[in-house]
Amino acid sequence: MQARAVNTISNPSQTAGTATYPRLRSVSADSLVVAILSPFLALTSRSLQRFLLAIVILDIPIQFGTYLFYRPLDAARGALKGLSISATTLALAALYTSWVVQALARRTPSERSSPHFNLPLLVYLAFTALSVLVAGDQTLSLFEVYLLLEACLIYFYVANNVRTRQDVLFVVSLLLGGCLFESLVITVMKFTVTASTTWDFPIHIIAEGLGDTGRMRIGGTIGVPNVAGAYLSVMLAFAAGILFGDLGKAYKWLASAVLGLGGVALIFTFSRGAWIALVLAMVVLCFVQWRQRGISLKRPIAIFVVIALLYLPLHGVISERLFGNDQGSAQSRIPLNKLAFRMIADNPVLGVGANNFTSAMDQYATSEFRHEWLWAVHNKYLLILAETGIGGLLAYVAFLLSILRKGWQCWKLGDSVLSPLALGLVAAIAGHMVHQGVDLFRDRPLQQLLLLVAGLLAAMYKICAADQRRIPLSSKV
């Protein structure tokens, strides 16, 4: 009887131990699952998403990255020099992972909105990818396809994930802040470095000419003075558009600082195409504001007074750059255009392959080009036509026109905050389209800036249109 009692008493402890073990194992499994999913859950944080988007925006002027499979000989002739891996690449990977996680977390179809697509942009990307099949150097082509795909991902993300006015203002503040930083770098370099100074990545200078006619062109962190000038011309026109809106004093003061310091930095790039693009953009912006809204001429006059004040102290070097001897810079573009037309005549459908202009031009450079400067053609439209064919060019032009149309529609909606921003971007893109007629802009900064502001225009139009639908008919009347 005693033995049985002992056995009866010991059985409960054994049962408790047996029950505890599965519970401990369950807790361990849950902890492992949480540990695995924690990085993905962190990506759904709104603060982290904004931080990653800030990296993408600020990396446009800062250019923090490198090139894999670097091709120096091709780079020396104007080809895209390698596979671009940058801070933008890593930030985009995290942003899209976050987007996918959030989409999967939405349980009902009503919570999911259909994504926005830009058909001409997708067609342009398709023609660029298709041209790889006919490229003589397919590795060079893949460099171009990859960079264009990355820029398209920026457009797609911004167009679909900038959903509120606060999101728009966040992007605007970062664009202005990045431009102010780049302008400060260029201005400081102008007065602190000489043409003999050696600057490694990411800051560059270019010395042109000798003696009294020489000048030092500053590219800042972007590197190439013409690209830096194009970046500044787009951003200055955008900053001018902010002055016409009701964004508050803080944004207007920031935009004014960008106009003042950025105008000085633009002069120091000595990019004639960028100067002309900015003047055209300002004319479009002020004329449309005056004709459509009947605004006072005080702001347009103030803007042109600022431009004049920037011109007067440097009128000598500006006039020399515009009307003086450019050492054959403009003349050298004519033979390159002839080469482009020869390539187009032989390859009208798919071109010679994306990023393959420089590798194919030796086949077309006959003896008459022996003493000419052989480089990638300085005309974005001819470059696309020669490399991707007529379909690629038509899709690219259709994409640019679709951006202008979307921005114009946003302007016509009459929103006191977003409409002037849209008009500023429309004017900036119109000026840049003219600038593309004299330069190629195949590197990362301008491609990503153009696609980012295009996505921002699509997002702003969607926000304005949604607000218009919510306004009662009686209020509209």
Q: How would you describe the overall organization of this protein?
A:
It is a single chain. The protein is mainly alpha-helical. It has one domain (117-476). 69% of the residues lie in helices and 4% in strands. The chain is built from 18 helices and 4 strands. Strands 1-2 form a two-stranded antiparallel ribbon. A two-stranded antiparallel sheet has the order 3-4. Helix 2 (46-62) runs antiparallel to helix 4. The protein is globular. Residues 1-10, 198-202 and 473-477 have low confidence and may be disordered.
List the helices and strands and how they pair.
Layout: H1 2-43, H2 46-62, E1 65-68, H3 72-75, E2 83-86, H4 87-105, H5 119-130, H6 138-161, H7 165-192, E3 204-208, E4 215-220, H8 225-242, H9 249-269, H10 272-293, H11 298-311, H12 315-323, H13 333-346, H14 357-360, H15 380-412, H16 418-435, H17 444-470, H18 473-476
Antiparallel strand pairs: 1-2, 3-4
Helix pairs in contact: 1-4, 2-4, 2-7, 2-17, 4-6, 5-6, 5-15, 6-17, 7-8, 7-9, 8-9, 8-10, 8-16, 10-16, 13-15, 15-16, 15-17, 16-17
